[in-house]
Amino acid sequence: MSIRLSLVMVSALLGACEQSSRLPEFELQGVTMGTMFSVKLIALRDEVSTDALGEQIRDRLDGIDQIMSTYIAQSELSLFNAIESTDWHEVSLELCTAVEQTLEISKATDGAFDVTVGPLVNLWGFGPDDVIAAPPDQARLDAALSTVGFESLQARCSTPALRKAKQEIQVDLSGWAKGYAVDELALLLNENHITDYLVEVGGELRARGLNAEQRKWAVAIEQPLVGVRRPQTVLRLTNYAVATSGDYRNFFEYQGQRFSHTIDGRTGWPVSHDLAAVTIVDRSAAYADAMATALLVLGPKSGPALAEKLEIAAFFLVRDEGGLFELTTSNFDGLNLR
Fold first, then answer.
1. What is the band of 31 on the pLDDT scale with cuts at 50, 70, 90?
2. 6 or 276: whose pLDDT is higher?
3. With bands split at pLDDT 50, 70 and 90, how would you rate the model's confidence at 28?
4. Listed range (48-57, 130-139, 232-241) with the worst mean pLDDT
5. Residue 226: helix, strand or coil by DSSP?
6. Is the separation of the CB atoms in 297 and 113 below 8 Å?
């Protein structure tokens, strides 16, 4: 993984240093989990070493990848998935806690988010296996569905250990790990007494303090458009995390139909309703990441209903004949983010 450090001084670039109150902004960037990450830092103290901080960030992200990646054959998760046994298997506390928390979300959403959905994700060409050009036939879908079900996975983190009730069960943390990485980097920055930052991993974000203009951080929610990046609205927030799931970035087309990377583990098929995107605001980026996936799977009626029931701050973009319309939960409206 490479990390690039850049010092951003917008007011200086504009030739208005003396008249601007904009604070210096540093940015650390790199690659992790098959995507990009960014850490923006405001007005660092002189005693903070950006080289040392970059090394800490690199080590933490690499550590998470070595535990939770399904793309690394020797990661702890991949080794657990390869076990053909229904006995308890000792794992690290970090992996056990990750599975325990995602099982809680799986239960709370009745499987709309399912931490064992990996075989279906792979079958549809969105996992570490080869991509596909056409939908799988029903027989292969039925076979993959028989290996999915969060009820067949157990976590006992007092040991810590995991157990498969069916040996075919495969754990997939990809709908949670990016948000978790954001939370872990935020914790690292807090431990380094850094009070103003914006952390992003693959589009999941977490903000603390204020930006270089001494305002709340501006976070854009994009319109669900293919090949175009255009904001639908902009949120102003601090001390919150934001995660979005949508059907418009990762997909393939077959005979004029689009097949999204978001798979409903209950049916085996990609989502195909009119809910285009869901954004969650929460204290935890990991929770927001997973819950955004679950609510997108549930669709334009059941998604908002569950979000209200669970008191989630959620923003929905739904397609209709006239274009797009917005739905928000009462908790989202109560945060006064716009």
1. very high
2. 276
3. very high
4. 130-139
5. coil
6. yes
Give me the percent of the chain exceeding a pLDDT of 70: 91
**Dihedral Cα 329, 264, 318, 102, nearest 10 deg:** 30
50 within 8 A of 28, measured Cβ to Cβ: yes
**Mode of pairing for the β-strands spanning 275-282 and 217-222:** unpaired
pTM of the predicted model as reported, rounded to 2 decimal places: 0.91
- The correct answer on CATH 1.10.3980.10 for the domain covering 84-164 is yes
Fold assignment, 3-64+176-334: T-fold (3.10.520)
Rounded mean pLDDT, 2-31: 59
What mean pLDDT is predicted for residues 31-58?
Answer: 91
The full set of domain ranges for the chain reads 3-64+176-334, 84-164
User: Do the domains 84-164 and 3-64+176-334 match in fold?
Assistant: no
pLDDT digits (tens, 9 = 90+) for 145-204: 999 999 999 999 999 999 999 999 999 999 999 999 999 999 999 999 999 999 999 999
- For the chain, report the end-to-end CA distance as a whole number of angstroms: 36
pLDDT, position 44: 87
Assigned token pair, 185: 């980097």
Closest CA to 164 of 113, 89, 107: 89
SS3 string of the chain? CCEEEEEECHHHHCCCHHHCCCCCEEEEEEEECCEEEEEEEECCCCCCCHHHHHHHHHHHHHHHHHHHCCCCCCCHHHHHHCCCCCCCEECCHHHHHHHHHHHHHHHHCCCCCCCCCHHHHHHCCCCCCCCCCCCCCHHHHHHHHCCCCHHHEEEECCCCEEEECCCCCCCCCCCCHHHHHHHHHHHHHHHCCCCCEEEEECCEEEEECCCCCCCCEEEEEECCCCCCCCEEEEEEECCEEEEEEECCCCEEEECCEEEECCECCCCCCECCCCEEEEEEEECCHHHHHHHHHHHHHHHHHHHHHHHHHCCCEEEEEEEECCEEEEEECHHHHHCCCC
